[in-house]
Amino acid sequence: MIVNSNSIMESNTMIWFRKGLRIHDNPALDQARRGCKHLYPVFVLDPHYLDPDQTAFSPGSARSGLNRIQFLLESLRDLDASLRRLGSRLLLLRGEPSPVVCRLLKDWKIGKLCFEFDTEPYGLARDKQVKDFASKYGIEVQSPVSHTLFNPSDIIGKNGGRPPLTYQSFIALAGRPVDPLTTMYSLLPPIGETGDHELLSVPKIEDLGYGDISQEAFSPFRGGETEALNKLDQVLEDKAWVAQFEKPKGNPSAFLKPATTVLSPYLKFGCLSTRYFYKRLDDIYTSVGKHTKPPVSLVGQLLWRDFFYTVAFGTPNFDRMKGNKICKQIPWRENEELFVAWRDGRTGFPWIDAIMIQLKKWGWIHHLARHSVACFLTRGDLFIHWEKGRDVFERLLIDSDWAINNGNWLWLSCSSFFYQYFRIYSPISFGKKYDPNGNYIRHFLPVLKDFPKEYIYEPWTAPLSVQKKANCIIGEDYPKPVVNHEIASKECKKKMGEALASPTSKINPLDQKASSSSRKKQHHNDSHEVASLKIKQRKNMK
DNA sequence: TCGTCTGTTGTGCCT
DNA sequence: AAGGCACAACAGACG
């Protein structure tokens, strides 16, 4: 703790925005604006996040698809506008965030630095550099936890130093979250001298070197706190819907009016405070009386978010199979061809492909749609590593969130939390039960739009005359299925059963040395199974 | 929390 | 008035 002896140092404060791109319920901002003469609101544009990467599989940077970059820029534009209304503005700089912030701290003679605590490994490493620098120069640092309902450290502490691994145990530890701040600002302290640092205005996506992007379909969801609060009001208007919300009952094929709130991208960037959202929901529950409960209710969804944040924070290598103590070790297979077919929406299963196209175009898909394609890629059909799928989601989703995305891939692939590996989503009947006419498929896969509904989920079974009439020949205009679901899912179940029963599924190659003989044996079985599956697939293609 | 398939039972409506 | 029919809701097997 730095003593408040140096009034010159005290007078300059920096609020460093990363997530938490909002004014409302922003503890870091609130702490920053107190008792300072000059307030410097900073955001650092990271070239790795923004600049085009030609080697990536979709338009975007090394770290993000175009839709999420767009969402971030919109959020920054909105934040800047809000700050300007309060007599301030967003100071935008470009470069690697930590060194840039350190330079600014020094050049602007900052006495106090505030930023929202970030629990992700990337954020922790980034912030450590800045904290070390600050402590070296006697700069006070405040980093309140406000991205989640609870402080993951508190929950882990209450649980004896280990993160709770079930939702119910998490709930038992959590209690009620703290109330959001309700302070309304009319004016923030002014910005001081900024010297010769180049301050940018929020770039347009065209300014980032993406050339002609008019061909890319952009997400229908706009970023920013203003948009978030408007959407929240819209969602909460229908109190009966809010009170009766049950997550598993949503319709994944609804896209004109999605079955969930689609507030996740705003939570991801902190355009919407999760504590404020919680409070608003709680008020509705109180006024309505009868309402659904966790885990299925809307509040239950916020708690799921905190659950995954907590486990992710307390689990080393949470985003990997190897070295991850809570992750089953499963001999996933390598198959680039099948993986690329999945990623690019060319599996030949219209339900799967339509979802992957919506993901690419919108940057958002329904929760159960995520389940469908994740199951298909991993334990359901292709038996490909969940990390490969995780990477695709992480890039394309506008709401992609490190803890939640990894948590759900662990869940869906039966690698952690959930192990009912024989519960496999059918790539044919699951979608059909919600959307028998196939409107969702027709919309996202227009090549199939004239297929009769009898065949639209399994177009390869349509007689050639039907294919001709629909102007879409399977194998030419739309791919044949890459696997036979009956056979592939049976193989997967067999392999999952063996993998989960095997003691090696618990052995963690980085922690414990598996005996070399058992490893060899496992590898042998693995390649044998892949070979036999390939033969079967070839047979089915005919 | 969030599977699929099949078979049974119950319901509403028609003739 | 009883039988036929379609369909929803549910239960159990499967793995």
From TrEMBL:
The cofactors it requires, by name, are: FAD
Q: What is its EC number?
A: 4.1.99.13
The alphabetical list of record keywords is: FAD, Flavoprotein, Lyase, Nucleotide-binding
What top-tier enzyme class does this entry carry? lyase
Q: Where is this region: Disordered?
A: 499-542
Per the record, where are the segments of Polar residues compositional bias?
A: 502-517
PROSITE patterns the UniProt entry points to: PHR_CRY_ALPHA_BETA (PS51645)
InterPro entries from the UniProt entry: Crypto/Photolyase_FAD-like_sf (IPR036134), Crypto/Photolyase_N_sf (IPR036155), Cryptochr/Photolyase_FAD-bd (IPR005101), Cryptochrome/DNA_photolyase_1 (IPR002081), DNA_photolyase_N (IPR006050), Rossmann-like_a/b/a_fold (IPR014729)
GO CC annotations on file: cytoplasm; nucleus
Any GO MF annotation of the entry: FAD binding
Tell me a GO biological process for this protein: circadian regulation of gene expression
* Positions of the Photolyase/cryptochrome alpha/beta domain: 11-149
Which residues make up the annotated site Electron transfer via tryptophanyl radical?
A: W332, W386, W409
Q: Where does FAD bind?
A: 260-264, 301-308, 399-401
| Cofactor annotation remark | Binds 1 FAD per subunit.
Q: Which reaction does it catalyse?
A: (6-4) photoproduct (in DNA) = 2 pyrimidine residues (in DNA)
Domain of life, per the record? Answer: Eukaryota
- Name the family: Belongs to the DNA photolyase class-1 family.
Alphabetized PANTHER family for the sequence:
CRYPTOCHROME (PTHR11455), CRYPTOCHROME CIRCADIAN CLOCK 5 ISOFORM X1 (PTHR11455:SF9)
Report the protein name in the record.
Answer: (6-4)DNA photolyase
Q: Which organism is it from?
A: Carex littledalei
